[in-house]
Design goal:
single chain, 278 residues, CBS-domain, 3-stranded mixed sheet, 10 helices, 27% helix, 26% strand
Length: 278
């Protein structure tokens, strides 16, 4: 199987020169955490812009300053296993597909899980690839803190637990994209100084109004934005069945529940890729 067999060819991107607001609008529209960026004059790939970039630089409005330019790439004719190994080695969730210097597609973890893993009938238990050491948030955690925990842990979603440590929901970056907004604030700066007693010079001073746009999140708690309808698996659920559940519910991770109904781990879609290479 090759990259071209599973890649997405209907690629949406933003262009530079461009603005952060344009990138945020496309991220929201596609419900993703990263999109390609191309150069407007040549159509060449400039890199990727991620939701994380936008939150880490809330005052930056120029898209060119928010682009990750060193991103791994693949060709349509590369073996799919090469793309899988690249994702596992780098942690990249999406790889631009380039032919003769032009962006012709994108292959994502979701593409591979939905179009390959789910259809391959892999009978190995998905729990063989689950993560037992997890970052989680308490239901009363402010969403602003949750996004920082995601960034520090390198995750796109977090389990939410109650005061007794029971799993009660999941919060992911899609929830956060929906809450984020760009706010405009202005302040007046006086370009000329005044000495004491020179009040009459006020009307003749040079003044400039400085306008800033910032990305902000509302004051909400994890319990207010989390998904409460959980899709879970057991330790015996197979890799392909787990992939099919992810495809059916359009999710990227599933909690693993023991026979005693205890939360014992998490399987992420990228974890299932390991079943293809070893």
């Amino acid at each position: 199987m090759k990259v071209k067999d599973v890649m997405t060819t209907d690629v949406k991107w933003v262009e530079i020169p461009g603005s952060r607001a344009e990138a945020l609008e496309l991220l929201r529209k596609l419900d993703v955490s990263a999109v390609p960026v191309v150069k407007r004059d040549t159509g060449e790939l400039a890199g990727m812009v991620t939701l994380r970039n936008l939150f880490d630089h809330p005052d930056e409005e120029q898209l060119a300053m928010l682009v990750d330019r060193e991103v791994p790439q693949v060709s349509p004719d590369d073996p799919l296993e090469d793309a899988v190994r690249c994702m596992l080695e780098t942690g990249a969730r999406r790889l631009p597909v380039i032919r003769e210097g032009k962006l012709v597609g994108i292959v994502t973890v979701r593409d591979i899980v939905y179009r390959a893993v789910a259809a391959m009938g892999i009978e190995r238990p998905a729990s063989d690839f689950m993560r037992r050491r997890l970052a989680a948030v308490w239901e009363g955690t402010p969403i602003r803190a949750a996004i920082e925990i995601m960034g520090l842990a390198g995750l796109r979603a977090l389990p939410v637990i109650d005061t007794e440590g029971k799993l009660i929901g999941m919060v992911d970056d899609a929830d956060i994209i929906g809450l984020s907004e760009v706010k405009t604030e202005s302040r007046m700066s006086h370009m000329a100084g005044r000495s004491e007693g020179d009040a009459w010079t006020w009307d003749s001073e040079d003044r400039i109004y400085i306008t800033k746009k910032r990305m902000e999140l509302p004051d909400k708690l994890a319990r207010e934005v989390m998904c409460k309808e959980l899709v879970t698996i057991t330790k015996r659920t197979t890799v392909s069945k787990c992939a099919e559940l992810m495809k059916q519910h359009k999710i990227e991770q599933v909690p693993v529940i023991s026979g005693e109904d205890e939360f014992v781990g998490m399987v992420r879609d990228i974890d299932l890729l390991r079943a293809l290479v070893g």
